């Protein structure tokens, strides 16, 4: 069994410590990846704060489930990758492969439960997965993706969670030219939602509590910003949107978002699906739908990467050396980021020297 350096914490929160962790022995269909860049997701902060009890922190929690890097070795049965290939990895690293969801490429909804990139229990050896805040990772080739050469590796890393989390509901709900889409919250998820929806041809509006992001919203591809604290703006927007993608990570009321939906409109909550939903009666007027979505399967993720490569879509990222991971998490918790932190893991080589 090999080891690698990683930034590890517990469900007690931050700070994280640089430690040596084990990586399982590669299997025949595995690739070993040197991680170059890893995005910092709000889910990482939730996990460290103990808000995701389904995740195990046995032996310490190493977050990180959106990363890019380079293949350093491949197993004997690997056919899609070779050493030196650029690669991208997301939130899942295994699934049963046999259930109805897996068969159609929706491994994120695997009936037996997909294996999370960190905090999951490997079905083969029972080990707990440790994530991308590390220099090396071992996974099945099926759950790795060729990184398009057109995409910057650092700015592309957040596509593997934030990007596909936006992509799947946009595609599932048929968003395209003529669609009226509102993105609630302009953060790590929301700014990618604006870019993707606009590239699909939709009319996009940002819903925000603050007017200060209006300029950013326009630059990202939105046609405007609706100030949700302005009662007159909210009243005039009643029944306006076909889809509201709610990316807000904090607890908040869903009723105002339902109010701006058109007939048969959909509110998709992806920022904080742990919240309590609205009264069902609020869905009655206008036959509104309340739904959610969780990251993406192999089919959707591959499609999303190809689409982003064609349209030049990546995250607006602030790249930090991984030694500043605690700073990144603290700033993320206070909302001090535009719009995604990405860790550069190359500084772990110096610690290993």
From TrEMBL:
Q: Does the keyword Zinc apply?
A: yes
Keyword Oxidoreductase among UniProt keywords: yes
A GO molecular-function descriptor: zinc ion binding
The Enzyme Commission number assigned here is: 1.1.1.2
Which cofactors does this protein require?
A: Zn(2+)
Keywords, sorted A to Z: Metal-binding, Oxidoreductase, Zinc
The main enzyme category here is oxidoreductase
Which SUPFAM superfamilies is this protein grouped with?
A: GroES-like (SSF50129), NAD(P)-binding Rossmann-fold domains (SSF51735)
- Say which domain of life the source belongs to: Bacteria
Alphabetized InterPro entries for the sequence: ADH-like_C, ADH-like_N, ADH_Zn_CS, CAD-like, ER, GroES-like_sf, NAD(P)-bd_dom_sf
Q: Which PANTHER family match?
A: ALDEHYDE REDUCTASE
This protein's name: alcohol dehydrogenase (NADP(+))
Q: Whose protein is this, by species? A: Nocardiopsis ansamitocini
